[in-house]
Amino acid sequence: MIKNYLLTPGPTPIPPRVLETMARPIIHHRTPEFQKVIQEVEEDLKYVYQTKNEVLIFAASGTGAMEGAIANIFSPGDKALVVRGGKFGERFGDICKAYGIEFTALDVEWGKAVDPKNIEEALKKNKKIKAVFTTLCETSTGVSTDVEAIAKIMKNYEAVLVVDAISGLAAIPIKTDEWGIDVVISGSQKGLMIPPGLAFVSVSPKAWQAIEKSTLPKYYFDFKAYKKALGKTDTPFTPAVNLMIALREALKIIKEEGLEVIFEKHKKMAAAVRNAVKSMGLELFAPDAYSDGVTAVRVPQGIDGEKLVKTMRDKYGVGIAGGQDEMKGKMFRIATMGYITPPDLIVCIATLETALSEMGYKFQLGSGVKALVEALK
Amino acid sequence: MIKNYLLTPGPTPIPPRVLETMARPIIHHRTPEFQKVIQEVEEDLKYVYQTKNEVLIFAASGTGAMEGAIANIFSPGDKALVVRGGKFGERFGDICKAYGIEFTALDVEWGKAVDPKNIEEALKKNKKIKAVFTTLCETSTGVSTDVEAIAKIMKNYEAVLVVDAISGLAAIPIKTDEWGIDVVISGSQKGLMIPPGLAFVSVSPKAWQAIEKSTLPKYYFDFKAYKKALGKTDTPFTPAVNLMIALREALKIIKEEGLEVIFEKHKKMAAAVRNAVKSMGLELFAPDAYSDGVTAVRVPQGIDGEKLVKTMRDKYGVGIAGGQDEMKGKMFRIATMGYITPPDLIVCIATLETALSEMGYKFQLGSGVKALVEALK
Fold it and tell me: How far apart are CA B294 and CA B137, in angstroms?
């Protein structure tokens, strides 16, 4: 018998209160009962997004909403600026390519954050840039971007700022209205603590202006159709009913706890993880630009990173994530968001110590857990 | 206290065995455990689809897969033929419009089925038609299309046949390979007995040829990306994990019961509903082209159809569907698919009798239930 602990940066574990709601008999979506769900979810999403903008809800993974942002903002001939410092930044570029939208890539070394000044430079150089795409918390590298500084710069430009906050929302601070971010994309399976299958997009009045003029083809992700339906507390297409009901419950939990409390908790937990791995002699992948939602750690020399992740999962039941793409086998990632708690982290670090030790990595056994627990005090 | 009975043509009720699987702790999707889910679901979907073709799985509502079919088959300048005999046939036309694909509309009176000969005529007239779009069971009218006959005709043409079987699959017969249907679209919340949020598409080798040449923009619904990932028992984007696990369980139930048994059961149930409403002096909306998945009935003169549906739902807990678009208030629809059983139908018809009687419709009380029960024997 094995007991499972999930500490991956999505899907994250789901509170039993939320899981339970998904096992209830289904209701029809064109009913007052479901309209109440839409209403409550919309209101609470605005709280989490810290916005007065509409938050559109899609039955899709986060990538669907990323595509939606591109298909709804641009017209043929428009230009984009894409910050690429990881797998998900790159995805924005890939979607632009698929839609024939020319883009300037602002390539940032994996593990580093973009310098907001470089965005200003690019905007100055190319007046035709209609939108800038960046990632709040780049899941693939554990890097956090200074979105606030970028938004400040962009107030002086016509371009729309689009932020992928899929693994950032409800995990680390993002103040949509106060900072002035036009489009904030998110997904259900990270800080929001429900299974994957829902994606969200908040849209500012400035972004709606761009959307009004956009002529790229779209249908399922047509933002205007969702806005119109939302005005009637409805959805243009069949919503993912059970996930919406789960979301309602998860948002209730978030509101009960309070966003600020959650952010502080994640901050403390991530700091504790960083302390723990450093005490074990391990190296952070993003020592300066780390995110408090997920910590990326370099696999030490001589250790097989893929085997490490597998051992922890299959032998000990502890799910962490490995590296993706160019970092495959060279990195592991531990999430500190949503329904991941300090006791989960203790299990995770103790298991990491055990597995690394078995694999021949030399360090002082117990040093990680000790540093973790001290930082969690 | 009210007890609820759901007899809408999607979402349909969900078996407790399936609901229970959704309340289990979530697992990560890039694991051998989830690969097993993909494998089993794929195999069992092929059984339900009666095909050897790949069945692609999307985290989306059915409309997403409809858009996918269009974005993946066509290139600018291509022509389509769209059978429009209801809300969902019309949707294919709307998506073609969104993508700038010119189409010939084969408009069929609501409540009637398309004459396959008219499709042949259109194909003869316009050699540039690259794909024909039709609906197996048109949810909005309760009409069943003779897809087998259409497929037979189309064997002599280069055009690809795309069938929307969203409310048809696992509800009424469709033999993808034997009949030779290139693209079959479906969704999770009808015959497949799980909540909305998953969409499916089977793709024939002939359709893959068209897809290879297509240049319309696509990313989230890029069929080739899903095919490639499926080859590695993976998904290109984060799958809707809990819905996939629910689907595995629902497909097990379908296999245990057997497709042929299910089709016979639905056939008998739909015939019983038709008998019941006719015995009450009501008129079928599609007397000749009825589907065995959903029965559409005209609201009698002088009765407010919207009020009828509301009364049944709010006063008696029985969910049936009203009419959509031009048939709003003039039609109601009772589903006979998935986890809807004869006792549900008895409750439904008895409630229908009660509500209609209260609203002043004159008929012999008890006649509907009597006819229903006799036909169910």
Answer: 8
Contact B59 A59 (CB under 8 A): yes
pLDDT average, residue stretch A161-166: 98
In this structure, are residues A154 and A161 in contact, taking their beta carbons and an 8 Å threshold?
yes
State the nearest Cα–Cα gap between B102 and chain A, in angstroms: 14
Mutate to test the interface with A, among B7, B19, B24, B28 (most CBs of A within 10 A): B28
In tens digits, what is the pLDDT along chain B, a chain of 377 residues? 899 999 999 999 999 999 999 999 999 999 999 999 999 999 999 999 999 999 999 999 999 999 999 999 999 999 999 999 999 999 999 999 999 999 999 999 999 999 999 999 999 999 999 999 999 999 999 999 999 999 999 999 999 999 999 999 999 999 999 999 999 999 999 999 999 999 999 999 999 999 999 999 999 999 999 999 999 999 999 999 999 999 999 999 999 999 999 999 999 999 999 999 999 999 999 999 999 999 999 999 999 999 999 999 999 999 999 999 999 999 999 999 999 999 999 999 999 999 999 999 999 999 999 999 999 99
Give the pLDDT mean for A149-175. Answer: 97
Phi and psi torsions of B64, nearest 5° = -60, -45
> What would the mean pLDDT of A353-357 be, rounded to a whole number?
98
Give CA–CA dist A114/B161, Å, rounded: 48
How many other CB atoms are there within 10 angstroms of residue A83's CB atom? 29
Nearest CA in chain B to A218: B98
Distance CA A197, CA B195 (A): 11
A84-96 in b/e form (b: 16+ CB < 10 A) is: bbbbbbbbbbebb
Domain chopping of chain A, boundaries: 5-11+258-376, 16-256
Q: What is the pLDDT of residue B316?
A: 98
Instruction: Select the residue from B61, B70, B164, B333 to test the A interface by mutation, using most A Cβ atoms within 10 A.
Output: B61
The residue among A190, A220, A320 with the most chain B CBs within 10 A of its CB, best to mutate, is A220
ipTM at complex level: 0.97
Chain A partners within 8 Å of B60 (Cβ): 59-60, 64, 220
Contact B203, B56 (CB under 8 A): yes
Cα B377 to Cα B373: distance, rounded to the nearest angstrom: 6
**CB–CB of B22 and A242 under 8 A?**
yes
What CA–CA distance (Å, rounded) separates B246 from B18?
5
Sorted by sequence, the CB contacts under 8 Å of residue A86 that are 6+ apart come out as A110, A135, A138, A139, A140, A141, A143
Q: What is the pLDDT of residue A83?
A: 98
- Show the CA angle centred on residue A230, arms to residues A251 and A180, nearest 5°: 70
Query: Beta strand pairing status for A294-298 and A331-335?
Result: antiparallel
CATH of the structural domain A16-256, one choice from 3.40.640.10, 2.102.10.10, 3.40.190.10, 3.30.830.10: 3.40.640.10
- Alpha-carbon distance A67 to nearest alpha carbon in chain B (angstroms): 7
Tell me which residue in A61, A219, A240 faces B196 most closely, judged by beta carbons.
A240
Judging contacts by C-beta atoms under 8 Å, the chain B residues touching residue A19 are: 22-25
B240/A243 Cβ within 8 A: yes
The per-residue b/e assignment along A258-295, b for 16 or more CB within 10 angstroms, e otherwise, is eeeebbebbebbbbbbbbbbbbbebebbbeebbbbbbb
Q: Please state which architecture CATH assigns to domain A5-11+258-376.
A: Alpha-Beta Complex (3.90)
The tens digit of pLDDT for each residue in A254-310 reads 999 999 999 999 999 999 999 999 999 999 999 999 999 999 999 999 999 999 999
User: To the nearest whole number, what is the mean pLDDT of chain B?
Assistant: 97
- Note whether A5-11+258-376 and A16-256 share their fold: no
Question: In chain A, which residues have their Cβ closer than 8 Å to the Cβ of B323?
Answer: none
Q: How far apart are CA A102 and CA A99, in angstroms?
A: 9
CA distance A323 to A336: 17
